[in-house]
Amino acid sequence: MPTLEPPVDRFFSHYILRLDAKGRVSVPAPFRAVLSHEGAEGLFCYPALDRPAVEAGGRSLMADIEELMGRDPPFSEEREQFATALYGTSEILKIDGEGRVTLSDQLKDHAGIMDAVAFVSLGHKFQIWAPDRFSARLSEATGTMRALKKRLGAERAANPQGARE
User: Fold this and answer.
1) For residue 136, which of 35, 76, 122, 165 sits 20 to 30 Å off, Cα-Cα?
2) Which residues have C-beta within 8 Å of that of residue 57, sequence separation ≥ 6?
3) In this model, does residue 165 exceed pLDDT 60?
4) Average pLDDT across the chain, whole number
């Protein structure tokens, strides 16, 4: 039976890796493959606005941000605030020849990263977490999805014709 390979334009899975003595961490090879496919020469990162994690990705993440900012008129206060919050705190990390990056102190402090990181896929982008914080986030997300599945199942059972439409 052939193995199913994930699309090259999406990030999948999660990886927990240790920082080396110089504070570098290897970007998982499947993530580097996506970045390479996008033509990204570095890793675009910024502190997540709503959680203790680092948002990261390549050209598709930057394109998403541009598209979101483009919804507001040029020179509007909303657009300026959005740009300040994202671009004003963003960094482009160089990926060295060994596939490693060095997270800045600002990014590590925001995410609470000490000696290990969790690279967490979100499809078109990924997040970088302190492993213990990611574990808590995963538990929360799993609980939310179980509750949603249960609620949707109950709704379908109560309205079987609606489920087929």
Assistant:
1) 35
2) 11, 35, 40, 43, 44, 124, 125, 126
3) no
4) 90
